[in-house]
Amino acid sequence: MVCQLFWVVVLLAITRVGEAKQNAGSLCNPSDLKGLIDFKAGIHVDTSGRLAKWVGHRCCYWEGIRCDNQTGRVTEIRLAGFISTNDFLFQSEMRGLLSPSITLLSTVGVIDLGGLVGLTGTIPPAIGSRLPKLRKLYLYGNMLSGPVPDSIGKLSKLEELHLHENRLSGSLPSSLGNLRNLNQLLLYSNQFTGLIPDSFTNLTNLMHLDLHGNALTGQLPVKIGEMQAMEKLDLSNNLLEGNIPLSLTNLNSISELYLDGNHLEGAIPFPSSSGQMSALGFLRLNDNHLTGRIPQNFGYLVSLQRVSLANNKLEGAIPSSLGSLSALTELYLNANLLSGQIPKSISQLSRLILLNISHNLIQGPLPSEFSSLENLQTLDFSFNRLKLVSFPKWLSEMPSLSKIYLAGCGIRGKIPEFLRATPSPIQELDLSANHLTGSLPAWLGSLTQLYSLNLSRNFLVSGIPDSVTNLQHLGVLDLNSNRLTGPISKVFEIGNAFPDGSLTYIDLSNNNFSGGVEQLGIGAQTGMQYLNLSHNFLIGRVPSSIGRLKSLQTLDLSYNKFGSKIPEALANVSSLERLKLQKNQFTGNIPVEFLKLKKLLELDLSDNFLVGEIPMGKPLSEFPESSYSGNKGLCGKPLAPCNS
Ligand SMILES: *[C@@H]1O[C@H](CO)[C@@H](O)[C@H](O)[C@H]1NC(C)=O
Ligand SMILES: *[C@@H]1O[C@H](CO)[C@@H](O)[C@H](O)[C@H]1NC(C)=O
Ligand SMILES: *[C@@H]1O[C@H](CO)[C@@H](O)[C@H](O)[C@H]1NC(C)=O
Ligand SMILES: *[C@@H]1O[C@H](CO)[C@@H](O)[C@H](O)[C@H]1NC(C)=O
Ligand SMILES: *[C@@H]1O[C@H](CO)[C@@H](O)[C@H](O)[C@H]1NC(C)=O
Ligand SMILES: *[C@@H]1O[C@H](CO)[C@@H](O)[C@H](O)[C@H]1NC(C)=O
Ligand SMILES: *[C@@H]1O[C@H](CO)[C@@H](O)[C@H](O)[C@H]1NC(C)=O
């Protein structure tokens, strides 16, 4: 007791010393006090417990509040949701309405209410006229709605405006262009519409503009290049159209430029000469409608590290100047109309880690100089006009290559045995849609790092080798559309042997597999999302252990000879979205428990021997007749009513 009293005294003494040091008025300015009390009153949940300690009148000592030590007026409110101290990290939450009284704090320079998750309401319309000293406004990561008020353009001292990740809407006020001191304008992941105001080009001190993930329309301001301080510009995932303005080449400080996921068209206009945009390290122009050639001048962008031009309509040859981009680590040119051969100069990109040129019109042969790309880990040449005939042996000798995609490359013959012992163990292999013949080799089981294997759409004839049970990292196995035979049990033994394994996707469809599945350990592969066994000769009962595949979204057992009852345990797979059991010999009723499958989007039970009433209710009654047709004994909605 005495001891406790001692500590109280000490604490009081410390507090007093603190106050003296601050030398501020011990009472709060009445206007500041009202602003803060109203703010607190708007919040009904504060998981951080900070506001609960806001009692009395001396607001300068409240947690999160700072005052000017001369005037005693509030200068900063710092109540961000993410709390980080030397000892702990903590995501807190405040739920409630952002009080417009916050604008009573007329001397405040910093408002940080970012990442509180649950703040609702609007940005107070008067904010611009009431808070002339505001330098930093952080309201990101909440549920604020409504527009950005026009008055915001009066905050002439504003340097940082972070309003991203809210539900703000309307068009961007042109007055934002008056904020000459603005360095950072982050408005991404909201619902803004309309144009990017031309006035933005007056924001010549802006270093970071991020508007991605809105619904902005129209063209980019022609004079965008006047925003000369810009280092990072992200306008991705909007609805922007028209050409990329030539003036972009004036952005001499730009290091990150993201215009992907829009409707931009025309040619890539930059750079027009050497020295332009020389700091550009990260460039994404993918998923637009860009046309024309990749400019030969691209080689002037000497700082480029990661580039994506994928999913456009770029044509012509890949310029050999790309070979001078010595910092390049990732290059995505996939899904364009690029033609000609791959220039040998690409083999000079000694830092290259990933190269995707798939889905173009590139012709062979592949330059064997490529083998000097010693850091290349991932290579995708799928679906071009390469006509390789055989798998290039030098590829299997590249020191870092472990993810190889050569689908639709015209490769013939057997699966080459030299893939068995590559310098870097194979993790991903896609040789689908080729002309491979022969068997699935037993040595596949020695690829112990294998995560994904796609050999679909070939002419492989054999059973599944026992050794596959060694593939403990296997996640994706696609063997569809071959002529594979025998039982499929080995594949499920992978899941049994490694119950926490990564198996998520199995497609064995359209082969000649046979035998039953009742004895398989189906159910241990709890991460499985996709299972397709359709178009085979599988027979017998489907075991109820299948109900343990808790993550399953797609199950296709169609076009087999499965019989007996549909396991009602499937009703426990609540993630199921697609269930296809048509063209089998299932008997009995449709389990009434299937009414629990609320996520089911596609159902096909047609052409079986099912009987009885279709369980009434969502989602079963809502599927079309064709989901149930060809079962002579079924009745009830959507089929004809049952005669009872
Ligand atoms: C007020 O704060 C400033 C800056 O932190 C400091 O230099 C000054 O000494 C303080 N004045 C008083 C009276 O404590
Ligand atoms: C940029 O600022 C100048 C000077 O204040 C002004 O005259 C001009 O209209 C502004 N430009 C735009 C596009 O708003
Ligand atoms: C390469 O691009 C294609 C087509 O756009 C895509 O489907 C594929 O996943 C990419 N490959 C790699 C290895 O990223
Ligand atoms: C395997 O390759 C085929 C054709 O190349 C493709 O359609 C399929 O999506 C691939 N499978 C997986 C699991 O990616
Ligand atoms: C299963 O595989 C068959 C044949 O390869 C294919 O036609 C079908 O679309 C696949 N089912 C699902 C649901 O993806
Ligand atoms: C696969 O099944 C088809 C249809 O029954 C048959 O014509 C073909 O000979 C079988 N192929 C093999 C390799 O078993
Ligand atoms: C579904 O899961 C529950 C709880 O996990 C279990 O008791 C029940 O037996 C399962 N139903 C079927 C039909 O397997």
Automatic annotation (TrEMBL):
Q: Could you name the domain of life of the organism this protein comes from?
A: Eukaryota
Question: Does Endoplasmic reticulum appear among the keywords?
Answer: no
Renumbered to this chain, the signal peptide range is 1-20
Checking InterPro entries in the record gives:
DNA_repair-toleration, Leu-rich_rpt, Leu-rich_rpt_typical-subtyp, LRR_dom_sf, LRR_N_plant-typ, LRR_R13L4/SHOC2-like
Pfam families registered for this protein in UniProt: LRR_1 (PF00560), LRR_14 (PF23598), LRR_8 (PF13855), LRRNT_2 (PF08263)
Q: Which UniProt keywords apply?
A: Leucine-rich repeat, Membrane, Repeat, Signal, Transmembrane, Transmembrane helix
Q: What sequence ranges are listed for the domain Disease resistance R13L4/SHOC-2-like LRR?
A: 275-488
Q: Where would I find the Leucine-rich repeat-containing N-terminal plant-type domain in this sequence? A: 30-68
Name used for this protein in its record: Leucine-rich repeat-containing N-terminal plant-type domain-containing protein
